[in-house]
Each structure stands twice: as structure tokens, then as C-alpha cells.
Amino acid sequence: MSIEEKKRKRILTGDRPTGPLHLGHYVGSLLNRVKLQKEYETFIIVADVQTLSTNFDHPEHLPVDVRQVTLDNLSVGLDPEMVNIFIQSMVPQIAELTVFFSMFITVNRLRHNPTIKTEASQHGFEENMTYGFLGYPVSQAADILFCRSDLVPVGEDQLPVVEVSRFTARRFNELYGNVFPEPEGLSGETARLVGLDGQAKMSKSLGNCIYLSDSSEAIRKKLMSAVTDPARIHKDDPGHPEICTIFSYQKAFNRDESLDIEERCRKGTIGCVACKKRIFEVIDKILEPVRERRLKFEKPGLIEDILRKGTEAACIEGDKTMQLVREAMHTDYFDRSNR
Ligand code: ATP
Ligand code: MG
Q1: What does the alpha-carbon distance between residue 149 and residue 40 come to, in Å, rounded to a whole number?
Q2: Cβ contact 226:199 at 8 Å
């Protein structure tokens, strides 16, 4: 059996509906989604099941968060006529594939995954990890492979998890026959944006974020109160941009000016307040068109229609993949009897 002929290469990527999307998503993955949407047939997953891997005790937040994440994706410029935005739990073929894949992915491979280790410690799961949390890379392999995706735009934190998907595709093909392409991870120019606390990556669960849906005023406040270089007491003290969160935002969002700012910071000729004011202007300008698009998509019923259409398209692709999988795995019992 060969991989079914495909007209266009595919992208699968997405987010956990655990809260509004932030600037880390924007630079890590969203910009690539927007840039590549014309070239690739694009599937955007709203990963509600993966949310339950950490938030299983609060499903009541899902309806609001699913809408929010969808709106955030649309507000950065994804065109719902071109891309399929869908809800993970409503594509049953993903759950089926997860079960099949979990038969041959070892527990050790998951336990030693660097992203699993970091996230387990962030959530305090080291001693008491659920089967679903440990296994989320397998479920994510099913998310990526159910539509036989070629490319996965993700932030750096997710690259080790995409490795599990690549291994899963290779192993499946070796064991049963060639069904899946080996998907490649693709990170943005800023692959990991640090959070406002300067400690960890900007992350919905850590509350250290500038959200795409924040008002100008909220962003100004967050930036103006961010910690910079603690050794800098007076504004003409020489600064250390390499340890400054605000400077990392200059590099991510204001690349052209950042060399000059770096030099002036080191010489003590630009103070932290001026530097913060400048990055506020730059970020606020980037978010202006995002705010305008958001208003356009906030009409009652529109998000639901977009998700319904995207989920139907995903189920159709899932069916095609499951036919290939069942044939390869000798589990197409009724079709087999007609041959
Ligand atoms: P949570 O804390 O609930 O896991 P999150 O902020 O990590 O939320 P996800 O939904 O897990 O967001 O990630 C969605 C996508 O955004 C992934 O591709 C991830 O790699 C990317 N991403 C998330 N945070 C950052 C960041 N700070 N810098 C770059 N990319 C990021
Ligand atoms: Mg995450």
C-alpha cells in the first residue's frame, strides 16, 4: 500500500483551550500559521482533550476557552475560508488512533521526554501523574497524524513532543506499512518567548502573559511594571540587556531598532522607562489590526459555524486515514471479506 496521493502538503497545529492566547503563541506559532495558510492545507486543532490532561477537574471552563482560542486564531489573520479550525474531542478518529499508537509507544520514551519532565514539575505531577498526562504526546501524535500532516508549526517547548509524533509515524510505517508522512516541527524566529516574570516561558498556566486580547492600557501597565536589570539603579548605570526581559521583547518585536537599543543600554544612555515606553508602542501597534479583526468575528453564532465546518472537514480526513490504518493493521474485517 502507498500513501494516498495528496494535492497539497498539510499543516496541523493548534493550542490547548486553557485561556486566552498570548504573545508567545504569536511569535512561536501563530505568525507561521498565517504566513503558510495559502501554501499548505491547514488544520488548526482546539485541543480540548489535551486541556483535560492537566485540568480534568475543571471541564466547566472549556466552552468559554474553546471560543476564546478560536477567536484568537482568527484575530491574527487566519482565514476561515482557507483553514479548518476544529475541536479535538469531536473528531473520534483521533481517539481511535491514540489507542492504536499507545500499543507500541513505550512508557520509558514518554517518561524521559524533556517537555513532559518540565511540565510535570510545573504542575507538581512528578509523584502523581495521570495516565493521560504521561500519554499526551501519543494523543498529540494522533492529532498530527489523523490528517497525515507534513508540517507542525510549534514553539520550541513543543519540539520534543513533535519528536514523539515523528517516531510514531516511522514506527507505524515499519510495523504495518507506509501510511504516514514523518511530520516536521517548525518554530518561529523567536521560538520561546520568556514570560513577564523573566523566569519561564510565557505560558497561560503560569499567568506571566501579555494576551492578544489585552487592552492597550493593560499592556502598558504590564510592561511598565516588568522587572528589568536588577543591577541598574539609576537610568545612566550601564545595563545588561542579555538578562533583561524587556530587551528580549525588543529583539522579538522590534528587531530593527534592537541593536541600537542594546548599545545604548550598555552605555547607560537609554533608561529602562524609555525602553519600556518604546516596546509598548511597538507591541500596541502590532496588536491594533488584531483587535479590529477580533471585533469582526465576535458576531453571535459565527465562531460556532466556523468550528462546525472545520470539524466536519477534519472528520472526513480522519475517515480516509482510518481506512488506510485499518487496512494496514488487518482490522478492516468487513471490507476484507468482500475482497
Ligand atoms: P499551557 O500553559 O496551558 O500549556 P501554553 O501557553 O503553553 O499553555 P499551549 O496551548 O500549550 O500554550 O501552546 C500552543 C502553542 O504555542 C505551542 O506550539 C507552543 O509551543 C506555543 N507556545 C506557547 N508558549 C510559547 C512561548 N512562550 N514562546 C513560543 N511559543 C510558545
Ligand atoms: Mg503548553
Answers
A1: 10
A2: no
- pTM, entire model: 0.94
Tens-digit pLDDT profile for residues 32-44:
999 999 999 999 9
DSSP code per residue over 15-31: E--SS--BHHHIIIIIH
Q: Cβ distance 279 to 265 under 8 Å?
A: no
Is pLDDT above 50 for 231?
Answer: yes
3-state secondary structure of 330: coil
Q: Cβ(150)–Cβ(10) under 8 Å?
A: yes
338-to-210, 283, 332, 335 alpha-carbon distances in Å: 58, 61, 11, 5
33 lines ligand 1 (CB under 6 A): no
Question: CA–CA separation, 231 vs 241, rounded Å?
Answer: 11
| CA-proximal residue: ligand 1, atom 14 (nearest) | 15
Rg (CA), the chain: 22
DSSP state, 254? -
Q: Is the CB of 155 under 6 A from ligand 1?
A: yes
- 126: confidence class by pLDDT, cuts 50, 70, 90: confident
**C-beta of 83 in contact with ligand 1 (< 6 A):** no
Q: How far is it, in rounded angstroms, from Cα 43 to Cα 311?
A: 9
Mean pLDDT of the chain: 95
Decide: 214 and 22 in contact? Cβ < 8 Å. no
Q: What b/e string do you get for 299-308 counting C-beta neighbours within 10 Å, with b at 16 or more?
A: eeeebeebbe
- Give residue 255's region: left, alpha or beta (phi > 0; psi -120 to 50): alpha
